[in-house]
Amino acid sequence: MKKVIISLMIMVPLLFSECRADQPSGPAEASEPGKGVVYLTNDTFKKSIFNYETEKEWKYSGKKPAIIDFYADWCAPCRQLSPLIEELAKEYEGKIDVYKVDTEKEKALAQSLGITGLPTILFIPVEGSPQVAMGALPKESLVQAITEVLKVTK
Q1: 19 assigned to active site
Q2: How far apart are CA 10 and CA 89, in angstroms?
Q3: Which residues pair with 123 in a beta bridge?
Q4: pLDDT along the chain (154 residues), means of 10
Q5: Less crowded by CB within 10 Å, the N or C end of the chain?
Q6: Are 120 and 67 in contact (CB under 8 A)?
Q7: Is 78 one of the annotated active-site residues of the chain?
């Protein structure tokens, strides 16, 4: 019985603590690709990445390979992944563009792309098809995907 009470005393405060992914309060257009993480809206996605409403075949609009992290603030694995995405944006600055999409705010975009699980990471090479990974991957796996899919090294 003591073990149960002690466990509850430890777990209950953790359940009520707020842990959010870092997100700027300004609009997505305030950031530039290549300068850290850029937060995309449905409109900025269609302009910067791919206009899924007018195009039938995938054609990436960007100039550099990209990573897009589809996340939600309530998603614990998304919160685990967020610092790694920020870290990769700094490490590969100038070589890849790193984006994030809040699926709670951009439901139409997430639905249009078939995002059903979180976190979902889209690796977009300049030419060719994007590759999708799901879950809070370790940094080594993310770096491997950047090297193999995006053909980028540090």
Answers
A1: no
A2: 35
A3: 67, 131
A4: 38 34 37 77 96 93 97 97 97 97 97 95 96 96 97 92
A5: N
A6: no
A7: yes
